[in-house]
Amino acid sequence: MENKNLKNMETKNFNIMENSAYKMSDAEMYPDVDPNERLTPHFTVREMLYSWTCEREGIINRVAEPEVIIPRLRTLCQRVLEPLRRQFGPILINSGYRSECLNYVVGGVTYSQHCQGEAADINTPDAETCNRYYNFIKDNLEFDQLLVERSKKTGHFWVHVSYTERRANRMMTNPHYY
Length: 178
Fold this sequence. Notes:
The chain is of the alpha+beta class. The chain has helices at residues 2-18, 26-29, 45-49, 52-57, 66-88, 100-106, 127-140, and strands at residues 38-40, 43-44, 93-95, 119-123, 145-150, 157-162, 172-177. A hairpin with a 6-residue loop joins strand 5 (145-150) and strand 6 (157-162). The longest helix has 23 residues, at 66-88.
């Protein structure tokens, strides 16, 4: 019996190495959390944990303290992302929660609110949409930090927004963070 299990493990490991199209299962990709859990009507845990970098690099975006992080993600979605979605329709999150490992790989700051489950980067197709999202959040919602960011490599814009319940939100803005 043990030899059969070992053979299955070896086959699986071989297939992972040889097949670049291998996709990790939910249990492998999202250990200790339910990726299908709804945080709000339009946002799930999966969406707030997903990372293209993790997929590309084979990194697991492990939630260090799910009992702390998931409620923080829910609050961020309720207070900021869901109202933005109601105003503009579907929005795409580039980066929500980041493990310390993922944050290091993407070059995030050491004390990033992404690692606390308190921040999200919102994809925007162009500068005009970025400014509309930014202005709506600034003028209508409570937040801790609100930034317009831009990739020096690609010129792509996104909105970084955070919300915290650990202290008073700072309402800190920077519309030209690039």
